[in-house]
Design goal:
By secondary structure, this protein is of the alpha/beta class. Helix content is 50%, strand content 14%. A hairpin with a 6-residue loop joins strand 1 (3-7) and strand 2.
Length: 353
C-alpha cells in the first residue's frame, strides 16, 4: 500500500495516510453528514453525498454550500451530491450512514439492493431504535446479515459538525470487530485536522453515543435552572457511571467509556453551546414546552427519542439509570424539571462505587 506523509502546520508533526482513493457514499445531508462528506472529499476520496431535499442537492452541486444545515461553510468543490439513493451507493467501497437513527431501518432496506458485495458499512449517527431498542449495528445485522455486520464500522467521538467543517483539530473513533474495515475508514478520514483512532468495541462506542445525548439534555436542564457548575460536573460524572453500567450489561468494555466515544463525547455535548441536545435541555430548564422547542429546530436532537429508548432498554436489562429515568419523565411525562432534580438528590444514600 502506497503511503504519503502530510505535515500539520498547527502541530508541527507528521501524519501518515494512504493515497489509495476510496469511492464513498455519505447518506444524509444534514450538518454532520455534510461536514463528513466535505472532509472525505478534501482528503482526495471520490465522494458523493445523498440528500433528501432537491434544492439542497442543487445548491451543493452549483455553489458548494449547504445553507440549510451548515451555513457559512464552503464545501470542497470535488464533492458531488445526488437525491437518488441507488446512484449514490452503487459501486461504492464505503457507505457512510448519517441519517436519524429512528429512520435508519428504512434507509437500510432501501439501500440494501444497491450495495456492492464487499462495501464497508459505516455509521455516524447516534441513538437506539425506539421500536426495537436495537443499536444501528444490530439493525444492520438483522437486515443485511452477518457478512455485512462483519464489515460494519461505528464512528463516534467529541465532534461538532461545524468545527470539523472549519478544520479545527478534532478526534474520533472508528470501531469495528473487523480491524481491516476500521483501518480503511481511519485512513479515509485521517488528515492534519482530524485524527482517527480504531477500536474493537462496537457496542460500547454505539451506547456511548446514544446515552451521552440523554445526559446532555439533563445537563442543559440543570444549566437552564441555574444550578451552577458543581451540579453540571456531578451530573456528567454520574451520567458516565450510568453509561458504563448499561454498557457492561450489554457486553461493552469499561475502557471504551473512559475514551473519546464515552467521556470525551459526553463532556463536549454536556458543555458545548453548539450541542442541540444541551440546548433542548436548557430551554426546558427555563420553562419552555418541548413541543415549542422542537418546532424551532431544523435539525434533530437525537436525545429526545433516545431518552425513551435508553430508559426502556435499562428497564429491560434491570440497569439502574436514575438520571436517564428523570430525563425521560421530564421529556415524556411532563414531570417538572425542578421536582425531578429534588427527587434525584433525595435518593437513598450509598457508596460511590
Amino acid at each position: 500500500m502506497t503511503m504519503t506523509t502530510m505535515t500539520s502546520a498547527t502541530t508541527n508533526r507528521t501524519i501518515s495516510a494512504t493515497t489509495d482513493i476510496e469511492r464513498i457514499a455519505v447518506i444524509g445531508g444534514g450538518s454532520w453528514g455534510t461536514a463528513l462528506a466535505g472532509r472525505l472529499a478534501a482528503n482526495g476520496n471520490d465522494t458523493v453525498l445523498w440528500a433528501y431535499e432537491p434544492e439542497l442537492v442543487a445548491e451543493i452541486n452549483s455553489s458548494h454550500t449547504n445553507s440549510l444545515y451548515l451555513p457559512g461553510i464552503n464545501l470542497h468543490p470535488a464533492l458531488a451530491c445526488t437525491g437518488d439513493l441507488e446512484e449514490a451507493v452503487s459501486g461504492r467501497s464505503i457507505v457512510l450512514l448519517v441519517t436519524p437513527v429512528q429512520v435508519m431501518r428504512g434507509v437500510f432496506k432501501q439501500l440494501a439492493p444497491h450495495l456492492a458485495p464487499e462495501a464497508i458499512i459505516a455509521n455516524a449517527s447516534k441513538g437506539i431504535e425506539l421500536e426495537t431498542l436495537q443499536t444501528v449495528s444490530q439493525i444492520c445485522g438483522e437486515l443485511l446479515g452477518d457478512a455485512a455486520l462483519a464489515r460494519y464500522v461505528a464512528l463516534s467521538g467529541p465532534t461538532f459538525a461545524r468545527e470539523v467543517a472549519q478544520e479545527l483539530p478534532s478526534l474520533i473513533v472508528a470501531a469495528s470487530r473487523n480491524i481491516a474495515a476500521a483501518q480503511r475508514v481511519q485512513a479515509a478520514f485521517s488528515c492534519p485536522c482530524l485524527r482517527v483512532y480504531t477500536n474493537g468495541d462496537v457496542t460500547g462506542v454505539e451506547l456511548g453515543g446514544a446515552v451521552k445525548n440523554v445526559i446532555a439534555i439533563a445537563a442543559g436542564i440543570c444549566d437552564g435552572l441555574g444550578f451552577g457548575y458543581n451540579a453540571r460536573a456531578a451530573l456528567i460524572t454520574r451520567g458516565l457511571a450510568e453509561m458504563n453500567r448499561l454498557g457492561q450489561a450489554m457486553g461493552a468494555q469499561a475502557a471504551t467509556f473512559a475514551g473519546l466515544a464515552g467521556m470525551g463525547d459526553l463532556v463536549l455535548t454536556c458543555t458545548g453551546d453548539l450541542s442541540r441536545n444541551r440546548t433542548v435541555g436548557f430551554k426546558l430548564g427555563q420553562g419552555m414546552k418541548l413541543t415549542d422547542i422542537l418546532a424551532e429546530m431544523r435539525m434533530v436532537a437525537e436525545g429526545v427519542k433516545s431518552a425513551e429508548s435508553v430508559y426502556q432498554l435499562s428497564r429491560r436489562l434491570g440497569v439502574e439509570m436514575p438520571i436517564v429515568e428523570k430525563t425521560y419523565q421530564i421529556l415524556h411525562d411532563d414531570k417538572p424539571a425542578r421536582q425531578a432534580v429534588i427527587e434525584l438528590m433525595a435518593r437513598d444514600l450509598k457508596a460511590e462505587v
